[in-house]
UniProtKB/TrEMBL annotation:
One of its GO terms (biological process) is negative regulation of developmental process. Pfam families: SH2, STAT_alpha, STAT_bind, STAT_int, STAT_linker. SUPFAM superfamilies: p53-like transcription factors (SSF49417), SH2 domain (SSF55550), STAT (SSF47655), Transcription factor STAT-4 N-domain (SSF48092). InterPro entries: p53-like_TF_DNA-bd_sf, SH2, SH2_dom_sf, STAT, STAT4_CC, STAT4_DBD, STAT4_SH2, STAT_linker. This is Signal transducer and activator of transcription. It comes from Chaetops frenatus. The gene is Stat4. GO terms for cellular component: cytoplasm; nucleoplasm.
Length: 743
């Protein structure tokens, strides 16, 4: 089943997450129509290879053309229109930067895998629960309801102001009519009666002015309370969700809803401001003793302007945090002289502001780094799929400045990966006579000068965003706080779900907890230090816990990803627990686990039974990325042989724990099926017999551990079968031993 087919079967709450990251940059209809083809391409590699990206872009356009031909025959007008639009987009937007579309598609596929992984995990962790609790959802609904009510109140007040204006115009007309009469006429009884009516009308005007000012005051108070409480909390919650999403957590939605609320509030405030201006206009035409307008209007206008200033300042946000396109799963880690992207949005979406706001990007003020590239751009509504007022910087590069001695600060392999920096942005909004200066900053970033520093830099980003809501504590690592173990384990599981498509279960997390603490502990109570996580070596090892875990992530990503996604790698299990699990199983049952002593290594252990009935266990020396580059791990499991005491080579691996036949578990990942291998008489290319590497180990009588599996014999399976037919076991053992110990 394709990945897209699995996505379509998700529950609605997960489908809503998928919907959030498909837009006009990569329309969902193309993902749907070309699902199989898209999933069969290596978009991640193309994201770092311009020539490969260009080929994939051209092939993508060809695929779209083929779909166009098909739907044209079906006369599907809507789909024809959409596909033509997509084709134009692909040719126009990405022709000069094909790596950009590769990054976008790679990110979309990765997010799909993360969501599929999250959907398969039955239990939510404490962080995810806190982000999705019912109180937050209820507040979101309340905010939307109150904003709508405020908008209606402001519109109703508009009608009151219009009624007041009409009433005053009638009063002006009648008053001027009396004033134009001759003196004799003014003394008539009819005129005196008209004067009494005018006085009554003036009393009504006074009452209506007071009523309108009171209604405006109530609307302003409601907006003030909403902005000070619920809307501020909602914005802070969104920023917290963004922090969590940056370190692998659930995708953060809700920005479009916030934009709607901010925009409606801004429109209502400007509407109230116009109402106050209209009252000022009425004041110039008519005033009297006790007139409420000159007393109350200045205070109300000052409050409206104050709320507008605050609303605009809070609406300027970093929509997408700084990230290098080459490392989309490691945002906020920036390498000197390498481009990164960052996107900002103004949540107040007013057409008058389109292309009128120019944003300037700078780096923090210590003068150690500068930003190279285009660092001033105008916000517009054309680049975003939803028409939001935003700007994306795509060509910024951090550069380290030379010190007075002519050298560069910490650049080189020892640049401090706990040193935090901030990318700042500033702009100015001029609208309806108001001038508002806006500033915002990215979450803290870590600068590196060498890719080898990336793992430790990413650890710093994880620890910061896990431990604090403060978006700008650049001195955080002067005294980093401890983290709750339960939350840290949840984040570690996210590293696996977001980076390699499958999170960790409770048993795997238990093993990591014991490795971190050296004991069985209560997750919710235990506090783990930063040093224990990333600075102190594991007991008896020359590396830290994080370096060990990062090496495993890299191993999975590059060499055993399909097996990991299928859930066939137990991975995190201690030797002691491994033996407990296997001891009562059928001989030949094995499991796969990551090495605790070798960085980036995976091994397998199987259970066997001696003639006297005793159970014994065998583990091979861990396979690292060097060995797995030469031979796929699934093929190793299929072809692995051991030479036991009777000198007969055999594959001891029969069942994957607990009782899954090996070929059923891994068959679809074999590079070729055993029955497809040619016999010697079939011949290979240019008359040669096709050959493959076969991993062989020998178990000696006085040892329960096999020799190193690094001895891979260049022997075809068919040749091996012929040897079994024509040579004695002793002869085979002599030949294999010669290769094992003298190659």
């Amino acid at each position: 089943m394709s990945q897209w087919s699995q996505v379509q079967q998700l529950e609605i709450k997960f489908l809503e997450q998928v919907d959030q990251f498909y837009d006009d940059n990569f329309p969902m209809e193309i993902r749907h129509l070309l699902a199989q083809w898209i999933e069969s391409q290596d978009w991640e590699a193309a994201a770092n290879n311009e020539a490969m990206a260009m080929i994939l872009l051209q092939n993508l356009i060809i695929q779209v053309d083929e779909q166009l031909d098909r739907v044209s025959q079906e006369k599907n007008l809507l789909l024809i229109h959409n596909l033509k639009r997509v084709r134009k987009l692909l040719q126009g937007k990405y022709h000069g930067n094909p790596m950009h579309i590769a990054v976008i598609i790679s990110n979309c596929l990765r997010e799909e895998r993360r969501i599929l992984a999250a959907a398969s995990m039955p239990v939510q962790g404490p962080l995810e629960k806190s982000l999705q609790n019912s109180v937050v959802s209820e507040r979101q609904r309340n905010v939307e309801h109150k904003v709508s009510a405020i908008k209606n109140s402001a519109q109703m007040t508009d009608q009151d102001v219009k009624y007041l204006e009409d009433l005053q115009e009638e009063f002006d007309f009648r008053y001027k009519t009396i004033q134009s009469l001759e003196q004799n006429d003014k003394n008539s009884a009819l005129i005196k009666q008209e004067m009494l009516a005018l006085q009554a009308m003036l009393n009504t005007l006074d009452y209506k002015r007071k009523e309108v000012l009171s209604k405006i005051g109530r609307v302003i108070h409601e907006m003030d309370m909403l902005m000070s409480n619920m809307l501020t909390e909602e914005l802070l919650d969104w920023k917290r969700r963004q922090q969590i999403a940056c370190i692998g957590g659930p995708l953060h939605g809700g920005l479009d809803q916030l934009q709607n609320c901010f925009t409606l509030l801004a429109e209502s405030l400007f509407q109230v401001r116009r109402q106050l201006e209209k009252l000022d206009e009425l004041l110039t035409r008519l005033t009297y003793d006790g007139d409420p307008i000159p007393v109350q209007r200045p205070q109300l206008l000052e409050k409206v302007n104050f709320l507008l200033y605050n609303l605009f300042r809070n609406s300027f946000v970093v929509e997408r945090q700084p990230c290098m396109p080459t490392h989309p799963q490691r945002p906020m880690v920036l390498k000197t002289l390498i481009q990164f992207t960052v996107k900002l949005r103004l949540l107040i979406k007013l057409p008058e502001l389109n292309y009128q706001i120019r944003v300037k990007a700078t780096i923090d003020n210590n003068r150690r780094f500068v930003l190279c590239g285009t660092h001033v751009k105008a916000m517009n509504m054309d680049e975003s799929a939803n028409g939001s007022l935003s700007v994306e910087f795509r060509h910024l590069q951090p550069k380290e400045m030379k010190t007075s001695s002519g050298s560069k600060g910490n650049e080189g392999p020892h640049m401090v990966t706990e040193e935090l920096h901030s990318i700042s942005f500033e702009t100015q909004v001029c609208l309806y006579g108001l001038t508002i200066n806006l500033e915002t900053s990215s979450l803290p970033v870590v600068m590196i000068s060498n890719v080898s520093q990336l793992p430790n830099a990413w650890a710093s980003i994880i620890w910061y965003n896990l431990s604090t809501n403060d978006p700008q504590n650049l001195s955080f690592f002067n005294n980093p706080p401890a983290a709750t173990l339960s939350q840290l384990l949840e984040v570690l599981s996210w590293q696996f779900s977001s980076y390699v498509g499958r999170g960790l279960n409770s048993e795997q997390l238990n093993m990591l907890a014991e490795k971190l603490t050296g004991q069985q502990v209560n997750y919710n109570d235990y506090q783990l230090s930063w040093a224990k996580f990333c600075k102190e070596h594991l007991p008896g090892k020359s590396f830290t816990f994080w370096v060990w875990l990062e090496a495993i992530l890299d191993l999975i990503k590059k060499h055993i990803l399909p097996l990991w996604i299928d859930g066939y790698i137990m991975g995190f299990v201690s030797k002691e627990k491994e033996r407990i699990l296997l001891k009562d199983k059928t001989p030949g049952t094995f499991l796969l686990r990551f090495s605790e002593s070798n960085l980036g290594g995976i091994t397998f252990t199987w259970v066997d039974q001696l003639e006297n009935g005793d159970v014994t266990f065998h583990s091979v020396e861990p396979y690292n990325k060097g060995r797995l580059s030469a031979l796929p791990f699934a093929d190793i499991l299929r072809d692995y042989k051991v030479i036991m005491a009777d000198n007969v080579p055999e594959n001891p691996l029969k069942y994957l724990y607990p009782d899954i036949p090996k070929d059923k578990a891994f068959g679809k990942h074999y590079s070729c099926q055993p029955n497809e291998v040619s016999k010697p008489s079939d011949g290979g290319g240019k008359g040669y017999v096709p050959s493959v590497f076969i991993p062989v180990s020998k178990i000696l009588n006085d040892s329960t551990e096999p020799h190193s599996p690094s001895d891979l014999l260049p022997m075809s399976p068919s040749v091996y079968a012929v040897l079994r037919e024509h040579l004695s076991p002793t002869a085979i053992e002599t030949a294999v031993s010669c290769k094992l110990f003298h190659s």
